[in-house]
Task: inverse folding
């Protein structure tokens, strides 16, 4: 049996080095995805081209595949109990270990793989649900409040529409009971990214290890993105994509500008957590 808190390093070594040939007798298939808006299931962003490894409990890897353009995967193996690993280091993806996948002697089962998250507000088409100008004005700081579901933050993705800033600090603040997040204290470590101008209109990820940014499930926090001039001497301001609140947006928080004024939209961002018992002990940063 696989114990609940798995070390990602152990699973990766087993999956990359132990290969066993077996006769296919049954399949596990499903979709790799995240919600477009956290807390509103039914509309998803599908994870394309992610690696999926399947390890029989006790004797190493017996299957490997990738998700398709529609996020679909299918793996065939003999009957038994397995663990699965969903990961994509090339995209600095937040990995996920799935336990207790039991294949029958014949036929197949369905298991959809969703990355654990505290906050999601993402989209594939800018003109669907986001309006004709889906971005904020320029500012040096933007906040997005959210409610934690895990015990630490393991990753943050965001998408800039334009930038004068060349560098950015990424931090998580914890609510002190005041609505305005500008005075909330920081929790744990912060992240730093460079060359922002190279990532305009592209998702920019940053990863944390489990425990670096501790959180309490049910408590309110804020993502803080702080633009910095960098070595080029330009201003620290930037614009980020956003989704107007139309009654179908993120219900447990909202965006704030640098002065602490609440907005009628949510920021384009993805905040991943460790609520699925996957221990991220090592990861690429950005």
Result:
């Amino acid at each position: 049996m696989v114990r609940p808190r798995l070390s990602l390093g152990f699973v990766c070594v087993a999956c990359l080095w132990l290969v066993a040939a077996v006769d296919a007798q049954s399949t596990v298939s499903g979709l790799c995805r995240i919600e477009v808006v956290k807390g509103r299931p039914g509309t998803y962003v599908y994870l394309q081209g992610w690696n999926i490894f399947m390890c029989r409990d006790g004797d190493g890897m017996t299957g490997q595949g990738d998700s398709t353009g529609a996020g679909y995967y299918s793996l065939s193996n003999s009957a038994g109990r397995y663990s699965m690993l969903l990961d994509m280091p090339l995209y600095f993806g937040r990995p996920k270990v799935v336990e207790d996948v039991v294949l029958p002697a014949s036929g197949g089962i369905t298991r959809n793989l969703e990355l654990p998250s505290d906050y999601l507000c993402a989209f594939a088409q800018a003109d669907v649900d986001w309006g004709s100008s889906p971005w904020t004005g320029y500012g040096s700081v933007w906040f997005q409040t959210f409610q934690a579901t895990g015990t630490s933050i393991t990753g943050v993705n965001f998408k800039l529409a334009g930038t004068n800033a060349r560098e950015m600090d990424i931090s998580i603040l914890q609510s002190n009971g005041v609505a305005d997040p500008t005075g909330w204290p920081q929790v744990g470590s912060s992240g730093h990214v460079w060359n922002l101008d190279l990532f305009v209109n592209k998702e920019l990820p940053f990863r944390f290890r489990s425990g670096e940014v501790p959180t309490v499930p049910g408590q309110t926090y804020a993502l803080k993105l702080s633009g910095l001039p960098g070595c080029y001497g330009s201003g620290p301001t930037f614009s980020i994509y956003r989704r107007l609140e139309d009654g179908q947006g993120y219900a447990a928080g909202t965006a704030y500008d640098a002065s602490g004024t609440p907005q009628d939209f949510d920021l384009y961002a993805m905040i991943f957590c460790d609520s699925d018992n996957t221990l991220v002990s090592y990861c690429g940063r950005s």
